[in-house]
């Protein structure tokens, strides 16, 4: 089966003094989360579209989906304490609800990347049906500088540097098996779900992203997103 999992479990601390997690903030006429869900509802190959949100906002999320979304494939569950715990909790729900199959795949996406395109989603599905893990990336435009304690320690060759986006897509069994092999120390170091597969020795295939597929993280990002929506309207 082919699943989508929209990760809406973040608190949005970098958004500043706002009354709710950033995924629930308004973007034009509806919440950011709803814009993102609607993009995934356009893909007919998904058997289920799972939204994983903070436990304290479960009822609010369900109310929003009832108000704005008519697609019966969309389900809501509470997430975990951090990103990868949320991802695994969503996978457990999918397996308990729909069963376990060796060829199950899941396309995971940040709830606050509402400008994801149908091309990116479709190519993630195509790639993950052939490979255990897929990452959406764009080539780095600026030089990437690595440093610690205010000193540069390395400047990698830019031509081999990419910026990671989402979706990130996985064969479910391969991801669960990889996560089970990690030590607690390795799990604590995870800042990215594809790193689960890399640490377990699994290959990760790349799909081309888009610069407009950016993550709404700060008030500036929200202003840019609002301007883009207004221009399209």
TrEMBL record:
Return the annotated site residues (Positions ribitol 5-phosphate for the nucleophilic attack).
158, 215
Please name the source species.
Answer: Lactiplantibacillus garii
> PROSITE patterns attached here?
ISPD
Q: Which gene encodes it?
A: tarI
Domain of life, per the record? Answer: Bacteria
Catalytic activity reads: D-ribitol 5-phosphate + CTP + H(+) = CDP-L-ribitol + diphosphate
**Pfam families attached to this UniProt entry:** IspD (PF01128)
Classification via CDD domains: CDP-ME_synthetase
Entry EC number(s) = 2.7.7.40
- The molecule here is called Ribitol-5-phosphate cytidylyltransferase
Task: Enumerate the UniProt keywords alphabetically.
Answer: Cell wall biogenesis/degradation, Nucleotidyltransferase, Teichoic acid biosynthesis, Transferase
């Amino acid at each position: 089966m082919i699943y989508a999992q929209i990760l809406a479990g973040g608190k949005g601390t970098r958004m500043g003094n706002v009354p709710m997690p950033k995924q629930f903030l308004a973007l034009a006429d509806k919440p950011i989360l709803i814009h993102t869900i609607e993009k995934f509802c356009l893909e007919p190959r998904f058997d289920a579209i799972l939204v994983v949100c903070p436990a304290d906002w479960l009822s609010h999320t369900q109310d929003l989906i009832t108000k704005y979304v008519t697609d019966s494939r969309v389900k809501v569950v509470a997430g975990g304490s951090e990103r990868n715990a949320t991802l695994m909790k969503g996978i457990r729900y999918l397996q308990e609800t729909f069963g376990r199959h060796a060829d199950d795949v899941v396309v995971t996406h940040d709830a606050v990347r509402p400008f994801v395109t149908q091309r990116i989603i479709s190519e993630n599905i195509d790639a993950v049906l052939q490979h255990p893990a897929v990452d959406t990336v764009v080539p780095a435009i600026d030089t990437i500088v690595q440093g610690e304690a205010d000193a540069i320690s390395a400047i990698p060759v830019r031509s081999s540097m990419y910026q990671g986006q989402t979706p990130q897509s996985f064969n479910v069994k391969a991801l669960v098996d990889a996560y089970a092999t990690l030590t607690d120390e390795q799990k604590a170091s995870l800042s990215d779900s594809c790193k689960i597969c890399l640490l377990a020795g699994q290959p990760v295939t790349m799909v081309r992203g888009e610069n407009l597929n950016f993550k709404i993280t700060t008030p500036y990002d929200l202003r840019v997103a609002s301007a883009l929506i207004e221009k399209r309207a």
